[in-house]
Amino acid sequence: MTKSTFAIFFLSICLSMIISCKEKIKSSKELKALEAKKPTTQLDDQIWTIFQDSKDQYWFGSNGRGIYRYDGEELELFTTSDGLASNTIRGIQEDHNNILYIETANGISMYDGNEFTTLQAISTLKNEWKLEQNDLWFGYDANDLFRYDGSNLYELKLPRQNLAKAFEGKMKNIPSEENGNKPYAVYGIDKDKEGNIWIGTETAGAFRYDGHSFLWFGESELSTLPDGRVPAVRSMIQDKDGYFWLSNFYSKYKPNPLMTKGYEKIKAVDFPEDIDQD
Question: How are strands ordered across the β-sheet holding 251-255?
Fold first, then answer.
């Protein structure tokens, strides 16, 4: 056997071993995933969020039992024992690579179809505010919010406003961070048809971010109500006339740079008096 023939023979043996090892690793992963499956026949009675992914699978996030996946045939449950950051689910998103991101009470879990990984947030003085097409935005249980650019998860801080001045005379207990409240805790994030990000807070109103600047909606109906209730701005919906409904039926809003506050506000719904008092 010549040296060249021996080299070819040796390389062939090595290549066969590598392929064999890869197949064993793949089979091991598939077997592990199969063994980890937890089929179930019933959803938890506290489902907080529902999401349909690009594969037409349905995901159901519970308030403490984990997240369910229904593929059209089988209902399966995933919990912290599978790698979830927490069993309390608050949001579900999917990126352009079909990777799933699950907001929990203890962080954000990424699911690539095989395993869960908890994203680690980066907090910098630079405050990485940007608005890219493929960015994902999270609020979950943060003081403010997070932006994920596909590589890094950035912890961001909303621009602080003069809440005392904005709400003076409109409520008894004005929310502030100084007295232990979390007025800027994010309860809702939505994107409008122009691509702007809308951010709803616990008691500091709502913000619109266009990639360059912020527009603040500091209205008392978006904060603590006169009777002490704190509904928070949980959803933002744009109607066909361009007005935004921010978690209430009393007012609707539209950005307008010609107005003093940068937006106009008009009455949304005429309530009968007996309903208005309830």
Answer: 236-238, 244-246, 251-255, 263-267
**Contact in structure between 143 and 123 (CB atoms under 8 Å):** no
| H/E run at residue 254 | strand 251-255
* Sheet of strand 121-122: strand arrangement: 121-122, 153-156, 145-148, 136-138
Q: Are 165 and 212 in contact (CB under 8 A)?
A: no
CA 65 centroid distance within chain: 19
Is residue 200 a contact partner of residue 206, using CB atoms and an 8 Å limit? yes
Percent of the chain predicted with pLDDT > 90: 60
- Three-state SS for 62? strand
Give the mean model confidence (pLDDT) for residues 197-210. Answer: 95
Cα separation, 21 vs 27, whole angstroms: 10
Region for residue 13 given its phi and psi (left: phi exceeds 0; alpha: psi -120 to 50; beta: otherwise): alpha
Residue 87 and residue 80: Cα distance in Å, rounded? 6
| Spatial separation of the C-alpha atoms in residues 193 and 208, rounded to whole Å | 13
CA distance 68 to 39: 9
Closest by alpha carbon to 53, among 138, 130, 11, 113?
113
What is the reported pTM?
0.79
Per residue in 19-60, pLDDT (tens digit) is 454 444 444 444 444 445 678 889 999 999 999 999 999 999
Buried b (16+ CB within 10 A) or exposed e, 221-245: bbbbeeeeeeebbeebebeeeebbb
Q: At 82, give phi and psi (nearest 5°).
A: -95, -5
Spatial CA neighbour of 70 closest among 52, 82, 54 = 52
Rg of the chain's alpha carbons, rounded to an integer? 25
